[in-house]
Amino acid sequence: MTLKKSTPLALIALAVSFFIGCSSQEDKDKYDHYYGSGSKSREETALVALQNERRNQPAPAPAAAASGQGAAAPAAGDSASAGSGDAAIGQGGAAAAATNPDAAAAPTAAPAKRKPVPADVSALLNKHACLACHQPYDKVIGPAYAEVAKKKYTSDQIVELVHNPKPEHWPGYPPMAPMAHVPKGDIVVIANWINSL
């Protein structure tokens, strides 16, 4: 008797859960755009752009200045072989660095801006696996923290973006998974460090 009464209720519950589980076409399209077939092309585009950017980075200035004019030509050849449209600019910059010691000192100032990660922040980044996708100054899967700092987000905005990411803020990157399990206090510590970059 109980089985006869509970069977229709179970079928109704199953139908309701199926109805609730099926979302609108708009939601399905958004999901497909960020996580489905649209994500593959976006990830491939971001990967190609990252590889091209790494290829087009200039050779380290101390090596060019130490080895003189001979090292300047291969460095310029590397940028030309990478398909850079700025090959002539790269050759002129390398030649100027090799002949003018003051010009060679200027490119070395850029890496000096890289501040070390404080121990407490590093511990939080490791604890919550942030470093799997983000690095302080280099692109990995997601943007570098230095790029995030350029957006001038407040700490509260960063907390919201970690808990509820907005992929439209970072075109060219795969969407970040919501990290709702990360405590707000930890994110605020990380956000304050990001904003100090």
Question: What does this protein structure show overall?
Answer:
- Residues 54-92 are annotated as: Disordered.
- It comes from Dyadobacter chenhuakuii.
- InterPro entries: Cyt_c-like_dom, Cyt_c-like_dom_sf, Cyt_c_ID.
- Residues 116-197 form the Cytochrome c domain.
- Heme c binds at residues 130, 134, 176.
- With 197 residues, the protein is mainly α.
- The chain folds into 2 domains: 48-112, no CATH class; 115-196, Orthogonal Bundle (Cytochrome Bc1 Complex, Chain D, domain 2).
- Helix content is 67%, strand content 0%.
- It has 11 helices and no strands.
- It has helices at 2-21, 25-35, 37-55, 61-67, 69-81, 87-99, 101-112, 119-127, 145-150, 155-163, 184-196.
- Helix 6 packs across helix 7 (101-112) and helix 10 crosses helix 11.
- It is elongated.
- It starts with a helix and ends with a helix.
- Residues 63-110 have low confidence and may be disordered.
